[in-house]
TrEMBL record:
Keywords: Coiled coil, Kinase, Phosphoprotein, Transferase. Residues 10-54 form the PAS domain. GO terms for biological process: regulation of DNA-templated transcription. SMART domains: HATPase_c (SM00387), HisKA (SM00388), PAS (SM00091). It is an enzyme of class 2 (transferase). It catalyses: ATP + protein L-histidine = ADP + protein N-phospho-L-histidine. Residues 87-137 form the PAC domain. This is histidine kinase. GO terms for molecular function: histidine phosphotransfer kinase activity; phosphorelay sensor kinase activity. PROSITE patterns: HIS_KIN (PS50109), PAC (PS50113), PAS (PS50112). Residues 150-197 form a coiled coil. Residues 201-417 form the Histidine kinase domain. The lineage of its organism: Bacteria, Pseudomonadati, Bacteroidota, Cytophagia, Cytophagales.
Length: 422
C-alpha cells in the first residue's frame, strides 16, 4: 500500500485484519491527511488502490460540510476518545464521481511513534436508509390510511347511528300505528258489544212498556165507550209511566253514544246550589212512586258554584231516579249538599233494597245490574254514564250500601272547573 503504509503497519497479522475488514477504514493524521485506507474504503469512495493516500479528509465530504469538519477534527485531536460521529444526524459522504451516499462513522485513535492517528470506521448505509425511508413512507402511508379509515369509520358510524335513529323512529311510528289500530279494533269491539247489548236490552226492556201501552190503549177505547172515566185515567197513567220508561232507556243510550264519541262538552255557568236542588226536587216529584218524597238539606257557606248545570242535573236525576226505583212506596229520599275545601259534596241516600256486597265492585261497569234488581226496569248504563259525567266535571263519586237497608251515593264537584282537554 505504498511506503507510508509499509512503515505504519509492520505486524503481518494486523495487516491482514486491516485489509480484510468489511468496513471501510481510513487513518488520518492531525493535519487531516489520509495516511492509509483499506480496500473497502477505496471501493466505497470509488478510488483505486492507494489513490486515497495523501488526500485531505475533507475531500471525501460534500462541500457544505467541509468547514465544519475542520473544526470538528481540531476538537477531536485535542481530546481524542472513541465515539460515534454525528450522533442523531444523517451523515453523507462524497464519492469520487461526485455522488453522495449515506454513511455511519465511528471514530477511534492510535499513536504510532508518538504521532496521533485518527481511525475512521465507515459503513455505507444506503440499503438501510432505503429500508428506513421505505418504512417511514409506509408509516406515513399507514398514518394517512389510518386517518382516512378513522374518517370512514366515523362517517359510517354516523350513517349507522342515523339509520338506527331512523329505524327507532320507524319502530315508534309503527308501534303508534299498531296502538291506534288496536284502539280502533277495541273501540269497534266495544261498539259491536254496545249494539249487541242494545238489541238484547231493547228487545227485553221495550217489550213490557210497549205491551202496556198497547193494552191500555185498547182498554181505554172500551172504557171510553162505556163512559168509565176512572178506569180511563188509570190506564192513561200506565201509558205515561211506560212512555217515561222508554224515554229513560233511549236517553241512556243517547247519552252513552255522545260520551263514547266525545261529543259532550262542558259549558260552565254560575249555579246557586239551593235553588238548583229545589228545581230538581220539583221536577222529580212527578216520577216518584206513591208516597215517596224528597227530603232536601242544603247548608252551604258558598252561595254559588261554577259548573255545567246540564251535566250536574243529569247526574242528580239519575241518582234520584235509581233511589226511587229501588225503594218501596212511602219511602223518603234524602238529598244534602255541603261545603268542602274548594268543592261541594252532594249526597243522595235512599231506604231501598241496597246493593249486595259481591256486586258493589261492578256498579260503574257498562250494562251491569245488581243481582237483586229483579223486575225493576233498567239498562245497566245509568251509573256508568254518571261516572263519566263526573269525570268530565273533574269530580269524584263513591257509595256505601247495606243489603235491604239502603244506599248512599256521594258526589264531590269542584266549586270551579275548567274543561278537560280533548
Amino acid at each position: 500500500m505504498g511506503t507510508p503504509q509499509t512503515g505504519l503497519i509492520t505486524n503481518e497479522a494486523f495487516r491482514e485484519i486491516f485489509q480484510s475488514m468489511s468496513e471501510g477504514i481510513i487513518m488520518v493524521d492531525t493535519r487531516g491527511k489520509i495516511v492509509v485506507a483499506n480496500p473497502v474504503a477505496e471501493q466505497l469512495f470509488g478510488y483505486a488502490t492507494d489513490e486515497l493516500t495523501g488526500l485531505a479528509m475533507e475531500e471525501l465530504l460534500p462541500a457544505r460540510y467541509r468547514s465544519g469538519h475542520v473544526n470538528f477534527r481540531s476538537a477531536f485531536n485535542s481530546n481524542p476518545f472513541p465515539r460515534r460521529m454525528g450522533a442523531g444526524r444523517d451523515l453523507t459522504a462524497l464519492r469520487r464521481d461526485g455522488s453522495e451516499f449515506p454513511v455511519e462513522i465511528s471514530l477511534s485513535f492510535t499513536k504510532v511513534k508518538s504521532e496521533l492517528l485518527v481511525m475512521a470506521f465507515i459503513s455505507d448505509i444506503s440499503m438501510r436508509k432505503k429500508t428506513e425511508d421505505a418504512l417511514k413512507r409506509s408509516e406515513e402511508q399507514l398514518i394517512v390510511y389510518a386517518v382516512e379509515l378513522e374518517k370512514k369509520v366515523e362517517m359510517r358510524t354516523e350513517a349507522l347511528n342515523n339509520s338506527i335513529l331512523k329505524l327507532e323512529e320507524e319502530v315508534i311510528e309503527r308501534k303508534k300505528a299498531e296502538e291506534e289500530v288496536r284502539k280502533s279494533l277495541e273501540k269497534e269491539r266495544e261498539l259491536n258489544e254496545l249494539k249487541t247489548k242494545f238489541v238484547s236490552i231493547a228487545s227485553h226492556e221495550f217489550r213490557t212498556p210497549l205491551s202496556t201501552v198497547l193494552s191500555s190503549a185498547s182498554l181505554i177505547d172500551q172504557y171510553n165507550t162505556r163512559g168509565e172515566s176512572d178506569k180511563i185515567n188509570k190506564h192513561v197513567q200506565r201509558i205515561k209511566s211506560s212512555v217515561n220508561q222508554l224515554t229513560g232507556i233511549l236517553n241512556d243510550f243517547l247519552s252513552l253514544g255522545k260520551l263514547e264519541e266525545g261529543k259532550v262538552d262542558v259549558v260552565n255557568e254560575t249555579i246557586h246550589p239551593r235553588e238548583f236542588l229545589d228545581e230538581i226536587k220539583e221536577e222529580m216529584n212527578g216520577v216518584l212512586k206513591e208516597g215517596q218524597q224528597i227530603v232536601l238539606d242544603c247548608t252551604m257557606e258558598a252561595s254559588e258554584i261554577v259548573c255545567d248545570a246540564r251535566i250536574l242535573r243529569n247526574i242528580l236525576f239519575n241518582l234520584i231516579t235509581n233511589a226511587s226505583k229501588y225503594s218501596d212506596v212511602n219511602k223518603s229520599i234524602y238529598i244534602t249538599c255541603r261545603d268542602q275545601k274548594r268543592s261541594v259534596l252532594f249526597e243522595v241516600q235512599d231506604e231501598g233494597i241496597g246493593i249486595p256486597e259481591e256486586d258493589q265492585k261492578h256498579m260503574f261497569e257498562r250494562f251491569f245490574r245488581a243481582s237483586n234488581s229483579g223486575n225493576v226496569q233498567g239498562t245497566g248504563l245509568g251509573l256508568n254514564i254518571v261516572k263519566r259525567y263526573i269525570d268530565l266535571l273533574q269530580g269524584t263519586i263513591s257509595f256505601s250500601s247495606e243489603y235491604n237497608k239502603g244506599t248512599l251515593f256521594k258526589v264531590t264537584i269542584p266549586t270551579s272547573t275548567n274543561p278537560l282537554p280533548k
